[in-house]
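Example: Importin N-terminal domain-containing protein.
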Amino acid sequence: MELLQALVGASNPDPNVRQAAENFLTTASNQNFPLFIHSLTSELINEEREPKIRQLAGIVLKNSIYSKSQERNEVLIKQWVSIDAAARNVIKNDLLRGLSSPIYDARHTAAIVISHIGLIEIPHSLWEELIPSLFKNIETGGEHLKQVTLQTIGYICEEIDPDVMSKYSDNVLRVITDGIRDESPNVKLAGIQALCHTLEFIKGNFEKKEQRDYIMKVIIDNSESQNPLIKKTAFENLVKIASIYYDHILEYMNPIFKTTVEAIQKDPTEDVVLQAIEFWTSLAEEEQNQIDIQPLDKLVIPKALDNLIPILLETLTKQSEHQDGGWGITPAGATCIQYISHLMHMTKLNENDPDRVAELVLPFIKNNITSQEWRLREASCTALGSILEDRKNLGDSLIHLIPVILQLIGDTNDMVKETASWTIGQICDHQIFNVSQLLESILKQLIAYTEDKNVKVATHCCWAIHNICQAFEGGSVGPYPTLQPASQEIAKCLIKAAHRTDIEDDDHKLKTNAYEALNSLISYSNASPELIVEILKVTFMDFEQSFKMEVLNQDDCEAQFNLQSLLCSTFQAIASTLKEHIQPYAKDMLNYLFLVFKNQSVIIYEEALLAIDALVLALESEFEQFFPPFLNILINFLQNVEYGSVTNIAIGIVGDLARSFGKKFSGICETIVPLIISDLTNPKLSMNAKPSAISCLCDIAISVGADFIPYLPTVMPILSQASKTELDDEEFLNELRETIFQAYTGILQGLKGDNRVEELNIYLNDMFNFIQVIHSDGDRSDEVTSSALALIGDLAQSMGEQVKAQLNNPLVKELVNDGIQRSVNYADYARDSVFTNNLK
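Written out as structure tokens, the predicted fold is:
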């Protein structure tokens, strides 16, 4: 097979042909990488080849020197720089000639490849002539060359460390603004796009007022362009500036307000309007981040609010009649209102301050929610749903609006029905405690509408029921202490919704929402055990059917995975709720759960393991009878940290098994403990999982007592080394240190139970050195202090005179006194253990 034939085959719809072509390309790359790269470059710049082939050659070339995976990218970089410098120069010069191609796809692909090579070589001074040659292209080239050269500069500047190319920043800005002033729309567009890519790169220029004024003028002028693409890109620049140069935005707000509002209200191009709205969304998001930094009277959004909200409310009435739930002007406007609403809530100094957003939005809702025009009814529901979060003073208004919205779920217009049901879901999520007197009527309507012929309405109603069930997690909701009286009817409607065949549920959202609502019902409604068992039996039938599903393609495979993940979640909720009463059904549950491990889906593995963990916690020592068939599954996940979060869950299950089995876990230690130690020392295991692995060893040590002694020579040095860890992430460092103290304490307690504490004598210095480390850390958390004091108290109680010298260190007394002053846990225990027992 020739390279040309392989490039043709790589895009062939026949998977066999495509696979053969891909295999050829891989082999060619492995056998002679320099020749392979040179050959691809030759195909890319060959004007006699079809544009599609040239573009494919360029894509393969780009993928041979760059990968989004950092690990893979490092390999590719080494491969590239290993090519002889002279050979690399030939390739680079060919690519630069490729920028002059009359075929856009070819020259644009060459620009992408050049930018990636530049990102490799420029920081190491391997391609010093690149940037000057690009500047020359813009000064002397024609339209096509200027266009693609600006793109190349933009791509490089977006990714490169500005310090590496600081000497070029003035010229970069000059050639870009020259491009923006070019008469050619294509060059002008490339210039404004390049500016967007280089905004962070030209930070030094932007900090200078004269240059900043010029940059902002260029952008704002182009936001009024007659060319929609140029106009859209100008707004993209403003969006980016709102976040990265917020401190400077205020001085330009008058022209920015004018141009964005004019675009939102009058521009016929949707993409332009979307970017104009996005500016205000981004600004609101940035001001949420700035609220603890900037004085409130400096914030932009509160000043613009009275003029801005009516304009955004108007966008809610610009629905497409065939809107499919995708992005558009209406959802963009609603999202912007949500961000502004949240920001304004954050600016309130006390709850009695006027709610300016509600004051502006509620009249719009009340005036239009019963309108004869469907767009206004739907817009009113959207507006209400967009301001519900954070608000505590909408109760009276909602009491009057909810009956109307419930009625709108039965509207003749599908979009009104869908948005009304979504709004009720939002109310149940954010405001249910404020309208709890209407809970019964809301629930009655939601149950009925789960049978609606509109799948989105039924889906939203299941979600709303889920939110109501979750509200009972903390206890009663208004006058209703539990959902138990309604639980039978709720379960019935949700099971029916999950199994509907009269409507198309292509993305399975109805089934998903129905099962998630069932899980919340099981967990929080105080439903009877009998009802939960009935739900379990339905889940058994669904699990059985899931293994019989016809799987012909990837979509079928994902549908099966998603269903089984849902069923695993339901098993978890049931086991967690029924606790020891789950025992008669545990064998059947585990049989299904073990079967899902034959699939190839990490998501299913996670959900299945969480369900098994719930069974471990529910059954405790009785899980022992089910452990043998689970052991190999557990070992697999512990041995392969590449599973990521799945391995983390498996480690957590080991800890729960140890606590559940107690001394009986000793028989498993020889198999399991070395795997946990291996995971803990494996650099591929996520740092976030390290505390979990240490906690696991702690649980095992407490459970097996003296049977943990063979592992002390390995475990204790690991804990000592971990105790010396220094990290910038203060929160994680505190978590790690707390876990290490708990591990020391757990090992000590386990050995004390078997009268073998003397085994720790040789490790006492490490423990007290760690205590000294946290004593000197003024930023330690109360939890770390508490864990240290618990260890000090246990050492005093368990080892007495053996640790008297170490406990007599003044820092111990200082740490104890500090704990008492801060009222942390175990402070009194440590004081009484050390000083009352005369060990000082």
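Residues 1-127 form one domain.
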